[in-house]
Design brief:
CATH topology of the largest domain: Beta-lactamase
Largest sheet: 5 strands, antiparallel
InterPro entries: Beta-lactam/transpept-like, Glyco_trans_51, Glycosyltr_51/Transpeptidase, Lysozyme-like_dom_sf, PBP_transglycosylase, PCN-bd_Tpept
CATH class of the largest domain: Alpha Beta
Oligomer: single chain
Subcellular location: Cell membrane
Structural class: alpha+beta
Number of helices: 18
Distance between the termini: 109 Å
Pathway: Cell wall biogenesis; peptidoglycan biosynthesis
Pfam families: Transgly, Transpeptidase
Keywords: Carboxypeptidase, Cell membrane, Cell shape, Cell wall biogenesis/degradation, Glycosyltransferase, Hydrolase, Membrane, Multifunctional enzyme, Peptidoglycan synthesis, Protease, Transferase
Helix content: 25-40%
């Protein structure tokens, strides 16, 4: 083998390959291979900027990197460095003055490692997985690649601290068994799909099981926006105030077995506006709507939201009986947060060789999946989750003008709690549960939602102000009937509709007029006066 190497490669090539792979220390569970990584690990600088004594230090520790570790054993490292400098002088590589100056210099190593996955193991796990899609192990280990990531260290550090602290707070507040709750989180810039931080567990520095990527758990009501988006994509049939029946539903399955989902409160609410059914996460209304629009169509919507995992066409999957990881849920919600465009979440922006030559760039890959108007309507409905729905208590922590859009989720027997939501600058998914699948005894809002709110507060989330698409118009509507309404009626609300699909009939404070289409004010249009307006004025003048 030695003869073959000598025949095919020059001594400089062989030495360079060795210098790019030689073992020079340990960073957590990861070895430090090559002078390029060792330079960053010990000195916080690229190898090209090392001083003579610093380079000699790295050379000196090669025989036993642990024994001569310059952080743990500085005296041993100095002795080895000085030996290298002496040999260099003896061989005429440096002058006597350079040798003496180098031998009297401090080691210069940083107090803590400036590089490596030990500080952010969950995020680096994602980086490694995405790199392996384009590069072989040989290229990653031997070629000295430089990888530019999307990691935001400030965001990551805040996320680590918030999750660790508030998991403990939840256990104390609800008298839960100590140190049993686990959590995972994915934080994304919704405008670019760049992953800013990943928390893989309660101990964020533990380089082990990465729950954010690998813990596939039932997502519960987190799946419901897909049902409502499917409906809103059919504006001739559905809008935000379309009455939905929240009443018991019975679905017969194979073998004659009947499935009849119940609301978490065990109370049915009769006819409710579509956006209210989503905001309050009514199971009966959601399943009824899902069956109306078609189970296959809902599953197709989920696929277009970026979920690659095969999902069986079972009615129970309308309530999230299928399992996804937090990263997969973040991919799903990114499609909503981006306005209907699918963008694969990315942790890498570019890869170069050691000379700075770009080997691969990771540009944003954007594909429009949904009508922006339908996404806008869904977003407005999801904002109601915080305004009046299952996430309303989060505003006890957050500023009221944040106007976040989100969704709570809980799996059967409260084994899993979820919250997925986005603001003007952040999309964040939080999962809370136990590794042993025992009940966490926490609903999505209580556990995951609580942590999500504290994350948004600590990360200075900005208010969500969705851009209104051109094909959206606003009108006053009666939230009980779904028909247009006078502004001053008791149940009147100002809601967006897709243009050309504004309801035709008018409800005058509970009195339905199937003939009049007047007296409705929309942005940019003058108020029209019809029969009921005239009649109202007649009585008020008496």
């Amino acid at each position: 083998m030695a003869l073959l190497l000598t025949f095919h490669y020059s001594k400089d090539d062989i030495l360079q390959a060795y210098m790019n792979e030689v073992y020079l220390g340990q960073n957590g569970n990861h070895g430090i291979h090559g002078f390029g990584l060792a330079s960053l690990f010990y000195f916080g600088r690229p190898v090209s900027s090392l001083t003579l004594p610093e380079a000699a230090t790295l050379v000196g520790i090669i025989p036993a990197p642990s024994y001569f570790n310059p952080r743990r054993h500085p005296k041993r490292a100095i002795k080895r460095r000085n030996l290298v400098l002496s040999l260099m002088y003896q061989q005429g590589m440096i002058t006597k003055t350079e040798m003496q100056t180098g031998q009297s210099a401090p080691l210069g190593v940083t107090a803590r490692p400036q590089w490596g996955s030990a500080a952010y193991p969950a995020f680096m796990d994602l980086v490694e997985r995405q790199l392996q899609q384009d590069y072989s192990r040989k290229e990653l280990v031997q070629d000295g690649l430089r990888v530019f990531t999307t990691l935001n260290p400030w965001t990551q550090n805040i996320a680590n601290k918030v999750i660790e602290k508030h998991l403990g707070d939840l256990e104390s507040q609800y008298s839960l068994q100590k140190d049993k709750l686990e959590a995972a989180s994915v934080i994304v810039d919704p405008a670019s799909a760049r992953v800013l931080a990943i928390v893989g567990g309660r101990n964020a520095h533990y380089d082990g099981y990465n729950r954010a990527l690998d813990a596939e758990r039932p997502i519960g009501s987190i799946t419901k926006p897909a049902i409502y988006l499917t409906a809103l994509e059919d504006p001739a049939q559905y809008n935000l105030v379309t009455p939905i029946e929240d009443t018991p539903i019975y679905i017969q399955g194979p073998g004659g077995k009947v499935w009849s989902p119940k609301n978490s409160s065990l109370v049915s609410h009769g006819k409710v506006p579509l956006m209210t059914a989503l905001a309050h996460s009514y199971n009966e209304a959601s399943v009824r709507l899902g069956m109306q629009v078609g189970l296959a169509n809902v599953l197709n919507t989920i696929r277009h939201m970026g979920v690659k995992t095969p999902i069986q066409a079972y009615p129970a999957n309308l309530l999230g009986a299928y399992s996804l990881s937090p990263f997969q849920v973040a991919t799903m919600y990114e499609t909503i947060a981006s306005g209907g465009f699918s963008m694969p979440l990315r942790a890498i922006t570019a890869v170069t060789d050691m000379d700075g030559k770009v080997l691969g760039s990771y540009a944003i890959n954007v594909k429009e999946q949904f009508n922006p108007a339908g996404i806008y309507l869904l977003t407005r409905a999801m904002q109601q989750v915080g305004d009046t729905g299952t996430g309303r208590l989060l505003y006890q922590i957050l500023p009221r003008d944040l106007n976040f859009a989100g969704k709570t989720g809980s799996s059967q027997n409260l084994r899993d709690g979820w919250f997925a939501g986005f603001t003007g600058n952040l999309l964040t998914v939080v999962w809370v549960g136990r590794d042993d699948y025992a009940s966490s005894r926490l609903y999505g809002q209580q556990g995951a939602g609580h942590i999500w709110a504290w994350l948004m507060k600590a990360l200075h989330a900005t208010p969500l102000k969705p851009v209104v698409p051109e094909n959206i118009s606003f009108a006053w509507a009666n939230k009980q009937t779904g028909q247009l309404s006078e502004q001053d009626c008791k149940d009147a609300i100002y809601v967006p509709f897709m243009k050309n699909y504004v309801p035709k009939f008018v409800s005058r404070c509970g009195i339905v007029d199937n003939e009049s289409e007047t007296s409705i004010t929309t942005p940019g249009a003058p108020e029209k006066k019809g029969f009921w307006h005239w009649l109202k004025g007649l009585f008020s003048s008496q």
